[in-house]
Specification:
- The protein is α+β, with helices and mostly antiparallel strands.
- It has a single domain, classed as Pnp Oxidase, Chain A, CATH 2.30.110.10.
- It is built from 4 helices and 12 strands.
- It has a 7-stranded antiparallel sheet. The chain has a 3-stranded antiparallel sheet with strand order 1-11-12. Strands 7-8 form a two-stranded antiparallel ribbon.
- The two termini are 26 Å apart.
- Bound molecules: flavin mononucleotide (FMN).
- The site of flavin mononucleotide has 21 residues, from strand 3, strand 5, helix 2 and helix 3.
Amino acid sequence: MRISELANPRQVVLVSSEAEIVLLGRRMEKKDIITLAWHMPVSMEPPRYAISVGKTRFSLNLIKKSRCFAVNFMPAEKEKEVLLCGRTTGQSTDKFRESGLTEEECEKIHCPRIKEALGWLECEVVEEIDAGDHVVFIAKVVYMREKKEGKRLFHVSGDRFVRV
Ligand SMILES: Cc1cc2nc3c(=O)[nH]c(=O)nc-3n(C[C@H](O)[C@H](O)[C@H](O)COP(=O)(O)O)c2cc1C
């Protein structure tokens, strides 16, 4: 049995990031979006948020390098985009282009965020924990904004979500 079978349903978010990295010997600026179900607030004062990113994920390289990321809370109708960002890798796919999601620059950090989100957090990494096959980033929330209310997607398993 997997932990997620007991822990789900969990809300899914899209985490966006950007960094200059060396890929195939070439230095380049890369942006990425990863779908995450493993994320949570961990402190109110100071405001801190944690995300858990698998060691095989391309986003891991970007967040390790830039030390920042945006957590985008997506409306339920973006299920197709959430699955695309959770099933393709930014190493070979430009997920902003492929998903059709609109990129906007964050207010306080050098990082893209997603215009279609209901709200977002801008985060600066303060601690990185090797948790096993995932790395947990604990981050200071330097800006947050709710744009509108709406139903969210909670992941059950595979392609199954509930909308709350
Ligand atoms: C519903 C759903 C939830 C996911 N939750 C996580 C998660 O919490 N942590 C994680 O590392 N990967 C998670 N993934 C897998 C990544 O989103 C997936 O491996 C993605 O392709 C990685 O993209 P990247 O290589 O561009 O970073 C999830 C995927 C889906 C579809």
